[in-house]
Amino acid sequence: MSKLMPLLYLLFLATVSLYGQRPNVVMIYTDDHRYSGIQALGGMQVKTPHMDALAKEGASFSNAYIMGSFSGATCIPSRAMLLTGRNLFELKGKGHIIPKEHATMGETFGRAGYHTEVIGKWHQDNASLARSFDDGKTIMGRGVYLVDHFRMPLWDWDEDGRFAHEDAYLLTYGKTNTLERRPLSERDQRGPVGTHTDGPHTSEIFAGEAVSFIEQYQKETPFFMYLAFHAPHDPRQAPPAYLAMYPSDEIVLPPSYQPQHPFDNGHMFLRDEQLAPWPRSPEIAREELAGYYAIITHLDDQIGKVVAALKAAGAYENTIIVLAGDSGLAVGNHGLMGKQNIYDEDGVHIPLIFSGNLIPEKDSNHEAFVYNFDIFPTLCAMAGIPVPESVSGKNLLPVMEGKQAGVRDHTYHAYRQFQRACRSGDYKLIEYVRSPDKDWKRGDIVTGSRVTQLFNVASDPWEVYDLSFLPEHSERIDKMRQQMRSMATELGDYKENIEGEKYDFWDVYEKR
After folding, report:
1. Runs of H (alpha helix) within 57-201
2. Cα dihedral sign for 252, 427, 78, 449?
3. Who contacts 451 (Cβ-Cβ below 8 Å, separation ≥6)?
4. Measured by CB atoms within 10 angstroms of the end CB, which terminus of the chain is less buried, N or C?
5. Which pTM does this prediction carry?
6. Which sequence spans correspond to the domains of the chain?
């Protein structure tokens, strides 16, 4: 039996006696939503009053990260880490499949007597989806994608996990503005070509389903809801009223804005980086950032509706709400557009808020180094549920209770075979290599650059001032390189540990 069990049991008894039942859980996961994409956290121009309220009514973490990715689709391993409580190197392959021996968050709460519900985006295999939840509403992401928030292929819940291509449908507005559903056809071209007149936005669909579930839920057992939005992932579409909030000529560019990245980071020419032309002029960067802020503010209003529904139903007092993003996003920072990097704001720094009536210290911010896979064991601790043996994340409840300052003294990050980083104290070291790769168009290639960067993230959170060339930091770099190598060994960072991975960062790095 876990050493945490006595403490968890006492916490469970205290929760039951105070509120009459175990707490509900609403796990909200947003897509490509960087830390500064919440006004209360980053202080930027984006308007997020409802997410700001969650921070005020809860505990936020200023140093929350994803560990990285071995795929350009970083949301795949990010979601696998969240759902399993396992780090990047403990996943099956690149995170597409969650094997049965890796207990999922939904599965764990279900076994503890919760009703488990899923709404929105799912990026793993059908079998793990079906075993993780009792029921679901609208599901997105099962192999058909039109790159359009207003024309998103959807599925109804299938308890057997089939989600067949022919069962996908679109929600559209009829002639009398009524909501209708129709099957996909060959005429449905890839977007983004949809507008608010064609059908509801994905954020509206998923939030609406969550509100309906909350309003109709009558069971005595508590519920666990996984609400996975697709926003603010591109295309950066939002209804006109939200776009009008952000005139592009009034957007202030972040300190790390650059027209182009100063060197080849190994993965410069993928889809995300083709969303805007090179160089990224200030005008282009402002337009992209305006669209990003607009879709976030629209998302914020939808999240506000979900919280309002909890309060109207009398469920808010006994519900833990978690809000987290699945990755950072550059949107012009360092001359990049996507998230295929390990800069903080551009790739790995995420918002993380635990909110609601049950949070011990309201309006609190914690500087502890945490990962998204720490959410799973933390929720288990808060609900008095034993943590599965397959989970390796850390329980953050003692940090929120003020009993300890942190759960680890460093972070480690990886992006494919090209980039590695470690954060220790105020400093972050990033190492890049030039490595073989395979491009689906160009075949076998060699790409990337041998570059070292050192940032004081505490004083330079946008990672603008590279300190690696300064003689006074040479000893620090040597020590951090040793620390990074030690972390890699401890975590199992080698290609044989990643199913399907042909290239190894360390093979190239140590031959420099």
Report:
1. 75-84, 105-111, 126-132
2. positive
3. 263, 431, 432
4. N
5. 0.95
6. 5-408, 412-509
Tens place of pLDDT per residue across the chain (512 aa): 344 434 443 444 444 433 347 999 999 999 999 999 999 999 999 999 999 999 999 999 999 999 999 999 999 999 999 999 999 999 999 999 999 999 999 999 999 999 999 999 999 999 999 999 999 999 997 778 899 999 999 999 999 999 998 999 999 998 888 999 999 988 898 989 999 999 999 999 999 999 999 999 999 999 999 999 999 999 999 999 999 999 999 999 999 999 999 999 999 988 999 999 999 999 999 999 999 999 999 999 999 999 999 999 999 999 999 999 999 999 999 999 999 999 999 999 999 999 999 998 999 999 999 999 999 999 999 999 999 999 999 999 999 999 999 999 999 999 999 999 999 999 999 999 999 999 888 899 999 999 999 999 999 999 999 999 999 999 999 999 999 999 999 999 999 999 989 999 999 998 86
What is the Cα–Cα distance from 349 to 255, expressed in whole angstroms? Answer: 16
Q: Which CATH class is domain 5-408?
A: alpha beta
Q: Determine how β-strand 135-140 pairs with β-strand 115-121.
A: parallel
Mode of pairing for the β-strands spanning 352-355 and 179-183: unpaired
Q: Which amino acid is located at 173 in the chain?
A: Y
Helix %, strand %, coil % for the chain, to 5? Answer: 35, 20, 45
User: What span, in angstroms and rounded, lies between the C-alpha atoms of 398 and 396?
Assistant: 6
Q: Do 63 and 359 meet the contact criterion of CB atoms below 8 Å apart?
A: no
Using DSSP's 3-state secondary structure scheme, residue 298 falls into: helix
Task: Please report the DSSP string for 335-388 in residue order.
Answer: T--SS-S--IIIIIB--EEEESTT-SSTTEEEEEEEEGGGHHHHHHHHHT-PPP
